[in-house]
Amino acid sequence: MALQRGVREADTPAGPEGSDPRAGGDVRSSRVHTAWAILRRGAGLWIPVTALLLLSLPAFASEEIAESVPEGIEFLEPLPEHASRVSDPVRATLGHAWRTGDADLLARVERSQVAGARLGLRDLEPHARLALHQPGATDLARAEAAVSLAPGWPAGHFALARAQLADLSPLGAARSLADGVRATRHHVGARLWAGPALFSVLAATFVLSGIAFLVLATASAGGGLVRALGSLPGDLPAPSRLALIGCVLLAPLALGEGLLGLGFALLALGLVAPGWGRRAAVALAGGLVLIGMFPLLDAAARSLVLGRADPVALAAVDTQRGLADLATYSRLAAADASRPAGRAGGLGPDLLVREALGLRAHREGRHDEALVLMEPLLRAKDPRQLTHAANVKLAAREPEAAIALYEAASRSSDSPVIRVNLSQAYGSVVRLDQQDLALAEAQALGADDVRDRAEVLSRAPAATTFDLPADWTAVAARLDARAEPDTAEGLAAALRERLAPGLLGKAAPEAGAGWLAAIAAGLALAFLLGRLGHGLESDFYGGMAELLVAGGGEGARRADRLARLRARQARSERLRLGLSWVVPGAAGLLGRHALLGLLATTFAGAAVAMLGFARGPLDDGGALGPGVGLLAATGAALATALYLSTTAIAVWLRERS
C-alpha cells in the first residue's frame, strides 16, 4: 500500500513551493476538476444519445391514426334513405351536424359542438377522429380541432403533441403530452390498454435488469472465484474449476427451471465475491427477478382480463359517451330486462345500465321514459348519477327537484360541471344571486372547464346542461370485482411458464424459498473459501510491488519495469472507463458502488423494455393513437438519460476514491 501511495504521488503534479494540492482548500478544487473532467467525458456520450432519442419522438409516433378510426361510423358517408330506421338516433344527429353545411374544419367543429351540447355531450370522439383526417388542413390544425371536439380523448392530445414537436414547439408538446397522460387516467379505453402495458413493461424491466446485473456481477467475480476454488481439497486445475462453475450455472436449466433457475444460480455465485454492499446489490437483483416474475406478471395478467370482465358495463360507458350503436342499446335493454326490480327475490335494477338507458331516452327527447328509467338513481349516492337524474328533471320542467339533486351532488363532488349545471337550474327559476354564486364556485374549481363550456353554450342557446360521462373510476371497482381470478391466474401461469417452467415458477412461495436458498448457498460458499484463506480479488498495486521486489537489479531496470507497469495500468484504466459507459452496471461494480450499478442496469432495462413493448399486449382501440409511440419513446429517453447520469456518478465516485 505504501507503493500504491508512492505511485499516485509521483503522478500528482506539485503545487507552488512544493505544496500538496490535496491539502486544505485545494482538495475541493481538485475534486471539482475531477468531476468536471468526468462529466465532460460523459457528456460526449449521454448528451448526444439523449438528444437523439428526444428528437426522434415524432418518428416513434408516426403511425397513421387512420387505423384508429372505428369501423361502422355511419356518418363517414351520406346516410341511405332508410337510415332513420336502422341507425342510432343520437349518432345520426351528430353525423348530420358533421357532414351537412360548410366542409371547412372550423365550421364542422362549431356545428358538432352545438349539436353535442344540445344532447348534453361535450366529448365527441368520433368527430375528433374524423377531424384528424380532414383534408385541406395542417396537422397542427387537425390536432387542435380534435382536442377542441374531445378534450377527454387522450389520442387528440397526443396528436397535438406530435404536431407541436414537428412544428419545433417542445414546450407546447410537453404540455400536450402531460394533458394526454391526465386524460389517459380517466378514459376507460385508454386505461384498459395502459394497465396491461404498464405492468408488462415493469415486469420486463425487473426481469431483464435483474438477470443482466447478476450475469455481470458473476462475470466480474469469475476470475477470483476460479482462483479461489483452487484452495478446495483435491487441487483442481483451472479448466476443471471453470467447468465446475459452468455446471452450477447449467444445472437449473438441465432440471427444467428455466430463466428463473439460472437467475438463482447466478445469485448464489455472485454472492461469493466480498463486500457487503456488493452482496446486498446482488441479492436485490435476485429480488427484482422474483418481483417481476410473480407480483408484476400477476398484475399484468389481471389487467388483461379486465376488458372482458363486464361487457355490460363497457356498453353502458359507450352509451353515456354517445358512442353506442343499436347493438349496444339492445345489449343494455336485455341486461335491464334480466333484472326486474319489482319481482320478489329479484336482483334489482343495475344503476349503471339504468343511467345509460335514461340518458339515451333523454337525448332522444323521451323525458317521461327517462324519468322512469332514472327513478332508482334518485336515491343514489354517486354524484355523477345524481347529476344525470337532475339533468333529466330539468329537461322535464321540474327545476326545483333538479336543484335539490344538483346540490346533493355538489356536496360530495368538486366537479365544476355540476356547478355549471346548477347555475343553469338557478337561472331557469330566476335565482340570479345563487346563479352567480354557483358560477363563481365553478370557476374557482376549474376556470378552464367553465370557460370551455361557456363558449359552447354561447353557440347553443337551446342547450342547458352537460352530462358527466362515466370515466374509469365509475367502472374500475366493478370490473375488478367481476374479473375471474381463475382466468387471470391461468393467464399468468401460461406467461410465466415460458420463463420458469419448473417447480420454482409454480407459485411465489416456492420461488421465494429458492431465492433464500440461493442466498444461503452463496454466503456459505463465501464463508468456506474465506476460511480456506484464499482471496477472491486481485490487488493490482500489491502485484506490482511483488514484481518490483522480485525483479531486484539496478535502479534503472526497476524504473523501466515501473514505467511498463504504469503503462499497463493506464491501458487497464482506459478499458475500464470504456466498459463503464458501454456495459450497464459496470461502472458501479468496478468502482465498488454496486447499488449504483444495479440502479444503472435497471434504468437501461427500462429503456429496452419501453421500446420493446411499445405497442403493449393489447390494441389501444384508438384511445391513445400516436400516444403509444410518444409515451414509449419519451420513457425510453428519460430512462436512458437516468442510466447515463447514474453511470457518470459511479465513474466520478470511482475516480475520486
Report on this model:
By secondary structure, the chain is an all-alpha fold. Helices cover 72% and strands 0% of the residues. Helix 15 (276-306) packs antiparallel against helix 26. The protein has helices at 2-11, 26-55, 57-60, 83-86, 89-99, 105-118, 125-131, 139-149, 154-166, 170-186, 188-220, 222-229, 238-254, 258-270, 276-306, 311-320, 326-337, 351-363, 367-373, 383-395, 399-411, 416-428, 432-459, 472-482, 485-497, 508-531, 540-551, 555-582, 586-590, 594-612, 627-656. The longest helix has 33 residues, at 188-220. The protein is elongated and about 105 Å long. Mean pLDDT is 80; it is low at 1-25, 60-86 and 538-548. The relative contact order is 0.13.
Please give the alpha-carbon distance between the first and last residues.
14 Å
Helix percent band: over 70%
Question: How many helical elements?
Answer: 31
Structural class: mainly alpha
Major β-sheet profile? none
Based on DSSP secondary structure assignment, what is the total number of beta strands? 0
Q: Note poorly predicted spans.
A: 1-25, 60-86, 538-548
Q: What portion of residues belong to β-strands?
A: under 5%
Radius of gyration: 33 Å
Integer average pLDDT: 80
Shape, per Cα inertia axes:
elongated
